[in-house]
Amino acid sequence: MSPAAPSPATAAVVTTTALGNRRTPLLTLVPRDGALAWVRRGEGLVGWGEADRLEVSGPDALATAAAWWADRCARTEVHDPVGVPGSGPVVFASIAFDPAASTSVFVVPEVVVGRRDGATWVTVTGDAGAEERAVVETSPAVTTTSIGQLRYADGSLDPATWCGAVEAAVARIDAGALDKVVLARDLLVSADEPIDPRRLLLRLAERFPDCWTFAVDDLLGATPELLLRRTGDQLSARVLAGTTPRGAGAEDERLATALQGSAKDLAEHGYAVRSLVDALRPYCDEMDVPAGPSLLTLPNVRHLATDVRGHQHGDADLLELIAAVHPTAAVCGTPRDRAATLIGELEGMDRGRYAGPVGWLDSRGDGEFGLALRCAQLTGAEGGRQARLFAGCGIVSGSDAAAELAETQAKFAAVQTALED
Ligand SMILES: C=C(O[C@H]1C=CC=C(C(=O)O)[C@@H]1O)C(=O)O
Question: Pfam families, from UniProt (predicted)?
């Protein structure tokens, strides 16, 4: 564990509705550097500045982070007349796909602007002057500069080698070694000009209103998958697995109908739902799991989707629940351990925080975490002109490597279109 700096003995956190009447879109408020965001349909949280930061890895990473956040909250003087999920002290988090091996990042912003059910609030952590700065800083930023031409290069594996990995995975599945594994690949992008995260976030939010547009520590994306939301003792999740690209004209409907009737995709989806439900069940006294999936339609792909709800008993905090459910078979596989080992063997890359939980947590224990999918890691290389994109696919018996490669391309398109616009 490597906390960047020791927490101050006490911190003051003030939430105010002073900007309550302003309807400025949240994502236009964030600065170019250090943007923090979790926004869907214009509501959610944005933040900037760093009042505190924790970078952590190792087998107890999430327990360490939970203790750090609880300790920080206990030593914080809070004035929060708003009193809704996301008001008062908030930490944004981007957790590694493998928290034991890679670094997870937790950032407490100096300023958070939140919007929920049409009401807007501002929360300031730290010195009194920050509140005034927040008001000044909540003027919309200019975000329209073009980044020029984009050039793409293979990431860790070229497409043919990745298809070979998919075939190897199918062979292992057919030999009975496991039921499902999610294999991902990365794509490198270089632009003529530095990539402005604000521009990317705005484009993603415009094009993907059903997704959660997120940014934490230069990992930016619009995820359709909600790993876990906790509001008091109510838990909810949106599990996705099983995908088809969009088609032109009548072909689009044909693809949608085929997805809903595909035994392969329904099996792939079933593993993902079961992995979440089985992991969450010990923490719930009631669960509502629909008998079959619905269809989620996005501009680039359609997914099989299941919205799961649970009523929590006991006092496990949200990070403990996240540690229990992650990684689900939407991003890892079944059985989990064998799938994780095969990912390490076949993928040839470090996922970092791709496919890890990303979101926020408040001092009441409420929060929302998605899976960091359809995302780009801004690398800072070449003066901020480079990004690394990620996309993965669930592989089961019957998966076809060429179709899976096409699926990764359709998934990359979420960020590519936002960069190219
Ligand atoms: C792993 C990814 O997607 C997951 C979520 C939805 C559908 C998926 C699929 O059909 O394979 C994946 O399980 C990704 O977008 O990188």
Answer: Chorismate_bind (PF00425)
Residue ranges of domains in the chain: 11-135, 150-200+225-420
Q: What angle do CA 29, 387, 157 make, to 5 degrees?
A: 150
| Integer Cα distance of 89 and 248 in angstroms | 47
| Catalytic positions | 180, 225
Query: Is the omega angle on the peptide bond into residue 335 within 30 degrees of 0, that is, cis?
Result: yes
> Quick one: CA dihedral 206, 208, 214, 215, positive or negative?
negative
State how far the Cα of 388 lies from the Cα of 63, in Å rounded to an integer: 29
Token pair 């929590």 in the structure block, residue: 312
243 lines ligand 1 (CB under 6 A): yes
Which pTM value belongs to this model?
A: 0.95
Distances (CA, A) of 150 to 35, 188, 370, 384: 23, 10, 28, 13
Ordered DSSP codes for 49-69: S-SEEEEE-STTHHHHHHHHH
- CATH number corresponding to 150-200+225-420: 3.60.120.10
Gap between the Cα atoms of 367 and 113, Å rounded: 15
pLDDT-flagged residues of the chain (< 50): 1-4, 6, 136, 142
Q: How many C-beta atoms lie closer than 10 Å to residue 341's C-beta?
A: 15
Give 212 Cα–ligand 1 centroid separation in angstroms: 15
Cβ 298 under 6 angstroms from ligand 1: no
What's the pLDDT score for residue 141? Answer: 52
